[in-house]
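Q: I have two molecules that I believe assemble together. Could you output structure tokens for the complex as a whole instead of separate predictions?
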Amino acid sequence: MAIELSFDHRERIEQHGVEAYPNECCGFLLGREENGSRVILEVAPIQNAWQSMENNPYEVRPEDSLRNRSLVDPKDYLRIDREARQKGLDIISFYHSHPDHPARPSEFDRKHALPFLIYVILAVEKGIPREMTAWLLSEDGARFLPEELSIK
Amino acid sequence: MGVKVVIPTPLRQYTERKDSVLAEGRTVDEVLRDLTTQYGDLRKHLYTEDGKLRSFVNIYRNDEDIRYLERERTPVKETDVLSIVPSIAGGCGCSHCVFVSSW
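A: Yes, here they are, computed for all two components at once.
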């Protein structure tokens, strides 16, 4: 299923990635399914909660930090989801940046990915936004499948 | 009636695409058991094989995380709203990437 973004939405995500560099940024893309595509109508940036959240359910290795991990505080999910519903929109994509790393999903991304959500990844190289890609978890959860990312 | 349970987008494929459903019960546990009886495909996404709520699943009663209340024994009324909130994370790390860096 293709995902459609406007140039403004892309710019907003890139801006977030640059602001957060050298840390990872993250957020949600809100929109609707239309004619077999996911159409993005709003970007909802959130704070990366990797170091601030009380109950981080993920494995934390000594080398992990905001530079290589992004985490959504469930309170932020709840808030963004409520705001989206009030506007008749849904959370249909999660985006995050890979600082100084390609826009390819990591094993961590795959292992913890949810079905349905499209994972948008932005590479930020030395503070400059580069490639943006989109991925969907396969039905068996074994791999990420590339999704068409259309900027209109 | 019943208690309204809000379903996040990743799990709606298991609830006939409904964004919220009603389920019966006086505690969080009873409501979620009724929910997963109505929608059996949801069960494995909410519970581990030994029947425990998954650590990546967060349940909110209105604005409160049930971990700070009485967990699954938290009482609920028909005026309450339960929200299923998934944990979401991403990240990269050179030694953990699926693809080798071309940079």
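A: One point stands out. Chain B touches chain A at residues 6, 8-10, 12-13, 19, 55-56, 58, 60, 63, 65, 67, 83, 85-94, 96-99, 101-103 (CB under 8 Å).
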